[in-house]
Amino acid sequence: MGSLDPLPMQGPELGVHADDIETPEMEQESKQEVLENKDVIVQHVHIDGLGRTKEDCLTYEIAGVFRAKNLIDVMKRAHEARQKLLRLGIFRQVEVVIDTSQGVDALPNGLDVTFEVTELRRMTGSYNTMVGNNEGSMVLGLKLPNVFGRAEKLTFQFSYGTKETSYGLSFFKPQPGHFERNFAVNFYKVTGQFPWSSLRETDRGVSTEFSFPLWKTNHTLKWEGVWRELGCLARTASFAVREESGHSLKSSLSHAMVIDTRNSPILPRRGALLKINQELAGYTGGDASFLKEDFELQFNKRLFWDSVLSASLWGGCLLPIGDKPTCIADRFYLGGPTSVRGFSMYSIGPQSEGDYLGGEVYWAGAVHLYTPLPFRPGKGGFGDLFRTHFFLNAGNLCNLNYGDGPRAHLSKLAECIRWSYGAGIVLRLGNIARLELNYCIPMGVQSGDR
Question: What transmembrane ranges does the database entry give (predicted)?
Answer without folding.
Answer: none
